[in-house]
């Protein structure tokens, strides 16, 4: 599509899975590759937006023309997202933030035997919920909900509890969808009660479907 409907818009996107290191060689993380966030950045750039991509360690190259901010942990991702928030018109939180982090970081590699006791955990900040508290009414804040089983009910619960403008629910227990896959299927849900099914397609096509909806709002 040759749509240029995001000219003059600033889009802030998070991508990838955060890593919560407990020592120099071990971390708590998840299998997110950041490909959905990358696709969103490519689509937004193509449509004329100026794009900032806050991403965790990834195997892909950031597209030329995208402002890339490289982070590792949820705390670092939070700091960058809060820093760039005031300037953004659309904020899309497609990163898979780790759920917990080790309470302490050890500069020394921990002996294996110590790990079961040496690993008290604490929650990481809920970044998107914080962005929702900080954002201005004209800013659109969109989350993702990677789910198994029923994808709609938990996504709606997150849409409301985190006070988002919209959420994209996608299954991670179906073949060729979700983590690491090049393709995806999803249901777009917003706080006005709109519900749009996005049938299986590439992550780049899905990114364009998402901007088709958002650009109209
Ligand atoms: O992990 P969860 O299913 O709650 O994620 C839903 C949305 O919240 C996603 O957009 C995710 O990026 C965001 N999130 C976040 N900070 C967390 C956990 C999730 O911003 N600590």
From TrEMBL:
GO terms for molecular function: phosphopantothenate--cysteine ligase activity; phosphopantothenoylcysteine decarboxylase activity. It comes from the Bacteria. Binds 1 FMN per subunit. The lineage of its organism: Bacteria, Bacillati, Cyanobacteriota, Cyanophyceae, Nostocales. This is Coenzyme A biosynthesis bifunctional protein CoaBC. Residues 11-217 are annotated as: Phosphopantothenate--cysteine ligase. The gene is coaBC. The chain holds residues 184 to 400 of 400 of the full protein. Catalyzes two steps in the biosynthesis of coenzyme A. In the first step cysteine is conjugated to 4'-phosphopantothenate to form 4-phosphopantothenoylcysteine, in the latter compound is decarboxylated to form 4'-phosphopantotheine. It catalyses: N-[(R)-4-phosphopantothenoyl]-L-cysteine + H(+) = (R)-4'-phosphopantetheine + CO2; (R)-4'-phosphopantothenate + L-cysteine + CTP = N-[(R)-4-phosphopantothenoyl]-L-cysteine + CMP + diphosphate + H(+). CTP binds at residues 99, 109, 125-128, 144, 158, 162. Its EC number is 4.1.1.36, 6.3.2.5. Its cofactor is FMN; Mg(2+). Pathway: Cofactor biosynthesis; coenzyme A biosynthesis; CoA from (R)-pantothenate: step 2/5; Cofactor biosynthesis; coenzyme A biosynthesis; CoA from (R)-pantothenate: step 3/5. It comes from Brasilonema bromeliae SPC951. Residues 6-215 form the DNA/pantothenate metabolism flavoprotein C-terminal domain. In the N-terminal section; belongs to the HFCD (homo-oligomeric flavin containing Cys decarboxylase) superfamily. In the C-terminal section; belongs to the PPC synthetase family.
């Amino acid at each position: 599509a040759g749509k240029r409907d995001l000219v003059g818009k600033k889009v802030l996107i998070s991508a990838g899975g955060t890593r919560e290191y407990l020592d120099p060689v071990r971390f708590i993380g998840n299998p997110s590759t950041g490909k959905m966030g990358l696709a969103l950045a490519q689509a937004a750039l193509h449509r004329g937006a100026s794009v900032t991509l806050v991403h965790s360690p990834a195997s892909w190259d950031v597209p030329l023309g995208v402002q890339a901010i490289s982070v590792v942990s949820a705390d670092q991702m939070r700091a960058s997202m809060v820093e760039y928030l005031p300037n953004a018109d659309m904020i899309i939180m497609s990163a898979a933030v780790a759920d917990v982090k080790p309470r302490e970081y050890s500069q020394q590699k921990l002996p294996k035997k110590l790990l079961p006791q040496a690993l008290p955990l604490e929650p990481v900040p809920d970044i998107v919920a914080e962005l929702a508290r900080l954002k201005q009414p004209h800013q659109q804040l969109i989350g993702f909900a990677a789910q198994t089983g029923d994808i709609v009910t938990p996504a709606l619960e997150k849409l409301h509890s985190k006070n988002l403008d919209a959420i994209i629910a996608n299954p991670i227990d179906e073949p060729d969808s979700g983590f690491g896959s090049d393709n995806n299927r999803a249901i777009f849900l917003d706080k006005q009660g709109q519900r749009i099914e996005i049938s299986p397609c590439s992550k780049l096509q899905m990114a364009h479907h998402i901007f088709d909806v958002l650009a109209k709002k």
